[in-house]
Specification:
- By secondary structure, the chain is an alpha/beta fold.
- It has a single domain, classed as HybD-like (Rossmann fold), CATH 3.40.50.1450.
- It is built from eleven helices and nine strands.
- Strands 1, 2, 3, 4, 5, 6, 7, 8 and 9 form a nine-stranded mixed β-sheet that branches.
- Helix 2 crosses helix 11 and helix 3 packs across helix 11.
Length: 290
């Protein structure tokens, strides 16, 4: 079956039909297409119950300032809505966790986002007047890196930071895998269901969620890669082919560790990281950059 070779982190690609505890809304906001999914039951394969919002921002690196500001407004608005729905205190500390590997372009969304976030937690004691002028929101950021380089699981680093910062909620930024190539570097998925680092590329680590951290988690992900077998299966599916010939099946099994990313990934990832950072800054502090 084709499904066995398809891997995606996008909820809208896993559960594209209503029913079985899934509610879907599609609409336009600030000129951007929005796909909103509410999963209330745990009987949808591969989809954790929760609220998922996918915002189709298009090619962010080509957006004019007005459109870019609209994208920032839209994403930041949904971060605020999710935080409010989770009962996360507006005045409490917020910990932003930026996952990924800076040395791999398609996986660098998190680290590049961290570079552009405005951190304020240290100012609360060192520069109280400046802290208050920035809105009085305590913001901390960490980039756990990858286990292969640090020897430390992302979850372990994050849990240590949570115990220190005691955040009202955590925002987790990461790169994702998609099924449809048209969504690569053109969409942003937000969710309150947590995230499993590396799951999209078959290297899943311990889940980062309320269940594991004890505080609400809002994930912000950008699809940057598609698995080679997924790419083939998506093409077959679009051609109306639901069964994979045995010879092709064996070939796909040998290619499940290959991933494809757009040729303009370096530009796209930088632009998307900047967009996500501005949205997080705006949601927490009310402005995008200093």
């Amino acid at each position: 079956m084709i499904e066995g070779f398809v891997r995606t982190d996008l909820a809208m690609e896993k559960g594209d039909k209503k029913g079985n505890g899934i509610k879907i809304r599609e609409f336009t906001e600030n000129g951007f297409g929005i796909h909103e999914m509410e999963v209330s039951e745990n009987n949808s394969p591969g989809i954790t119950p929760g609220h998922y919002v996918t915002i189709h921002v298009g090619q962010a690196w080509l957006l004019d300032k007005i459109s870019l500001d609209g994208a920032v407004k839209t994403i930041s608005g949904y971060i605020r809505k999710m935080a409010s729905a989770l009962g996360a205190g507006k005045s409490g500390p917020v910990l932003t966790v930026c996952l990924g590997n800076r040395k791999i372009t398609s996986d660098a969304i998190g680290p590049l986002c961290a570079d552009r976030l405005i951190v304020t937690r240290h100012l609360r004691t060192e520069r109280r007047e400046l802290f208050d002028s920035l809105g009085g929101t305590s913001v901390a950021v960490i980039t756990p890196g990858v286990t292969g380089e640090t020897g430390i699981e992302s979850y372990e680093s994050i849990m240590a930071a949570v115990r220190t910062v005691k955040p009202s909620y955590v925002i987790c930024v990461d790169a994702l895998a998609a099924k449809n190539v048209d969504r690569l570097t053109t969409a942003v998925q937000l969710s309150d269901a947590g995230i499993s680092p590396g799951s999209g590329v078959g290297n899943s680590r311990k889940e980062i969620s309320f269940a594991t951290l004890g505080v609400p988690v809002i994930s912000v992900g950008v699809p940057t890669v598609v698995q080679s077998s997924t790419l083939v299966c998506d093409a077959l599916e679009k051609a109306g082919i639901s069964e994979i010939p045995e010879a092709l099946s064996q070939l796909l099994k040998n290619e499940t560790d290959f991933f494809v990313t757009p040729k303009e990934t370096d530009i796209a990832v930088s632009a998307l990281a900047g967009l996500v950072a501005k949205a997080i800054n705006t949601s927490l502090l009310g402005f995008a950059e200093l």
